[in-house]
């Protein structure tokens, strides 16, 4: 049994993770060192131990108070794992953050250090802000949206790392995809693994020059580091202030390896909204528009709303609770869309089940049967369930 040694160690109270070989990485953010400081620890545990107290001899441990606050662990397919510690202090540099690859068979033991980790070099860089994103080729990506570049605050950085050798040293322009303007916070809406080890980076707060928060989603190819400033040449992007392309869910991988981009603020913030299909092997570029996206038609439609759900056959479902149905505010809609090519158009009875009572949108519930390609939507305010099969152009409803 793995145990703490001091009251309040709270061994295993963090974001623990199971590895491919059945072992467990136990995270103890409040574990105290010999001086009684809550520096935190991450311990690799299997049926053969280690047993007894957490220690520097059997665990990766922090150096300063709070080093393991909000630490996460990502398991790789090769049995290695990545420990992200965004509040690790790099010497006197508070909250520099670090991302550490731990390899089989022993994992990581000893003091957390920037020598063998990807690390921040400025206060509040918070490298490894979110759990590392594992790609389909076994590599991984570290998002650090609050990373600063030469005094420009929170431009953000996203760093690709080999799953066998990891990354070490400071985050930089040479090894990362980065923003250019203050508070671009590149990668803030996440990194999504798509087909063949490719990945996409969602940055809804990116500024296109004087166009604030235009937002963009950048496609990166597998097997190579995606570096340099983000730009429109390799990205789907907004064209107006507060378009915030990639807002809310960023991008969502479909079961066929393609992906869709959520931009619920498109058309200048709080707008009609858009959802854009993209090929997972080639990505998508250009400005979001009705020519390449499924879009809302009225202000505050906020397509795709709070949810995109990928289903088993490559299609996807969009729930849009704020959509107005004529004079009925927030009647809502649930839409079934194909995930095999560019999707355009707007919500209508051919592709959606539409609420017919004011403020019904938040109460619409749905399920999807992939074998029949059939969407079922419960409409409690109307006391009906609607069945939608879009290729048959058939909408049925029953009490």
Structure description:
This protein has 399 residues and is mostly beta strands. The protein has a domain at 1-137 and 157-171. The chain has strands at residues 2-3, 17-18, 24-28, 41-45, 52-53, 60-61, 72-75, 81-85, 98-102, 110-111, 118-119, 133-134, 140-144, 157-161, 169-170, 176-178, 191-193, 199-203, 216-220, 228-229, 235-237, 251-253, 259-263, 274-278, 286-287, 294-295, 307-310, 316-320, 333-337, 352-354, 365-369, 374-379, 384-389, 394-398. A five-stranded mixed β-sheet has the order 2-3-4-6-10, with no helix packed on it. Strands 7-8-9-11-15 form a five-stranded mixed β-sheet, with no helix packed on it. Strands 12-13-14-16-20 form a five-stranded mixed β-sheet, with no helix packed on it. The N and C termini lie far apart (55 Å).
Shape: globular
Main β-sheet, spatial strand arrangement? 2-3-4-6-10
Could you tell me the strand content as a percent range?
Answer: 25-35%
**Termini Cα gap:** 55 Å
Low-confidence stretches: 392-399
Radius of gyration: 23 Å
Q: Count of DSSP E strands?
A: 34
Largest sheet: 5 strands, mixed
Average pLDDT score: 92
Q: Structural class of the helices, strands and pairings? A: mainly beta
What's the tally of helices?
0
The residue fraction in helices comes out at: under 10%
Main attributes?
5-stranded mixed sheet, 34 strands, globular, 399 residues, mainly beta
Present the secondary structure layout:
Elements: E1 2-3, E2 17-18, E3 24-28, E4 41-45, E5 52-53, E6 60-61, E7 72-75, E8 81-85, E9 98-102, E10 110-111, E11 118-119, E12 133-134, E13 140-144, E14 157-161, E15 169-170, E16 176-178, E17 191-193, E18 199-203, E19 216-220, E20 228-229, E21 235-237, E22 251-253, E23 259-263, E24 274-278, E25 286-287, E26 294-295, E27 307-310, E28 316-320, E29 333-337, E30 352-354, E31 365-369, E32 374-379, E33 384-389, E34 394-398
Parallel strand pairs: 1-5, 6-10, 11-15, 16-20, 21-25
Antiparallel strand pairs: 2-3, 3-4, 4-6, 7-8, 8-9, 9-11, 12-13, 13-14, 14-16, 17-18, 18-19, 19-21, 22-23, 23-24, 24-26, 27-28, 28-29, 29-30, 31-32, 32-33, 33-34
């Amino acid at each position: 049994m793995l145990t703490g040694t001091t009251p309040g160690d709270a061994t295993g109270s963090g974001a623990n993770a199971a590895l491919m070989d059945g072992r467990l990485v136990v995270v103890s953010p409040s574990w105290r060192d010999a001086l009684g400081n809550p520096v935190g620890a991450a311990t690799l545990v299997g049926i053969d131990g280690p047993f007894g107290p957490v220690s520097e001899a059997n665990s990766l441990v922090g150096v300063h108070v709070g080093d393991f606050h909000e630490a996460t662990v990502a398991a790789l397919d090769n049995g290695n794992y990545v420990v992200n510690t965004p509040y690790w202090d790099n010497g006197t540099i508070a909250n520099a953050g670090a991302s550490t690859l731990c390899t089989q068979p022993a994992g990581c033991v000893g003091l957390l250090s920037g020598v063998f980790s990807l690390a921040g070099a400025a206060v509040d860089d918070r490298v490894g802000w979110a759990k590392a994103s594992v790609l389909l080729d076994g590599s991984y990506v570290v998002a650090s949206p609050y990373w600063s570049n030469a005094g420009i605050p929170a431009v953000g950085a996203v760093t690709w790392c080999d799953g066998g050798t990891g990354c070490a040293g400071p985050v930089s322009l040479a090894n990362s995809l980065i923003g250019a303007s203050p508070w671009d916070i590149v990668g803030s809406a996440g990194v999504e693994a798509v087909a063949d080890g490719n990945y996409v980076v969602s940055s809804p707060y990116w500024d296109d020059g004087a166009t604030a928060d235009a937002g963009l989603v950048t496609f990166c190819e597998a097997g190579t580091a995606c570096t340099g400033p983000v730009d429109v040449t390799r990205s789907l992007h907004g064209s107006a202030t507060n378009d915030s392309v990639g807002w809310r869910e960023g991008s969502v991988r479909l079961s066929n390896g393609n992906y869709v981009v959520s931009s619920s603020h498109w058309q200048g913030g709080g707008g009609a909204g858009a959802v854009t299909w993209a090929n997972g092997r080639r990505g998508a570029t250009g400005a979001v528009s009705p020519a390449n996206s499924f879009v809302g038609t009225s202000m505050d439609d906020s397509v795709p709303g709070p949810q995109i759900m990928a289903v088993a056959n490559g299609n996807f479902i969009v729930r849009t609770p704020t959509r107005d149905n004529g004079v009925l505010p927030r009647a809502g809609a649930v839409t079934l869309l194909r995930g095999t090519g560019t999707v355009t158009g707007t919500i209508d009875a051919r592709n959606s089940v539409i609420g017919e009572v004011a403020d019904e949108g938040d109460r619409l519930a749905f399920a999807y049967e992939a074998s029949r390609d059939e969407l079922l939507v419960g409409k409690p305010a109307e006391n009906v369930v609607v069945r939608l099969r879009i290729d048959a152009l058939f909408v049925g409803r029953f009490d």
